Amino acid sequence: MTDIFSFVRGTMPVLVTFPHSGSHLAPGMERRMTERGRQLPDTDWYMEHLYAGALSKGLGVLKANHSRYVVDLNRGADDAALYPGRPSTGLVPSLTFDGQPIYRAGQAPDESEIAERRETYWRPYHDAVAQELERLRQKWGWAVLWDGHSIKSTIPRLFEGALPDLNLGTNSGQSCGGELQTLLEKRLAANVRYSHVVNGRFKGGYTTRHYGQPEHGIHAIQLEIAQSTYLRSEEAPWPIDLEKAVRLSRMIDSLLETALCWRPETAHSGK
């Protein structure tokens, strides 16, 4: 079986995670899916390419290898709604973001299969995230979790209009220190190429909300990128625009550098 995740341990107190960039499926799953489902339209395409600078900066990178259609790693194990009143995409989705069936009629997972996927895929991934954050916190006195995402810029079922290019989420300021959020906001405001919003439509999913505990030294941030910023087309086969991707990577690098250079007042220099 394909590894649940890929992990490169870093040397600095920032961990970058990609919960939705994988494309592997659970055994026997593909034959049960619709043609649209097999395209995996809600994948966070090319995240490793956009974040290539993270490894060169000494940041740890943890990437899920399976599709979010197997299990959504940015949802809680209890499948609680992140945005009450909005359509919920689910811990084990049955519909694409635009409302099309992922599975053929009668082939969607039952509660037993959902529970199995939660134990097989969800739990090991989050165990790894928690262990690495604790290691960083023990070593540095603090850690930053940077949760990297991308999404189609217009999805009427989920949000009105078009998204800003860069959507920074800190659970309305609760998941990271105020000074860090301010520094990132200033970095975003200083750029002239990309529109941005902080705690707009995307405030951070389960990962940001669960791990972000600044009072305990863990600061969590989600960056949701509109895919129009780096794809030639936001439809299958989702071709990348290399020129646009290079420009976007530079912007991402500058944001990661901001997080890397920041130090909370209570930080120590390591043990």
TrEMBL record:
Keyword flag Methyltransferase: no
Domain of life: Bacteria
GO molecular function terms attached to this record: N-formylglutamate deformylase activity
EC id: 3.5.1.68
Residue ranges crossing the lipid bilayer per the database entry: none
Keyword field: Hydrolase
Keyword DNA-binding on entry: no
Record-given protein name: N-formylglutamate deformylase
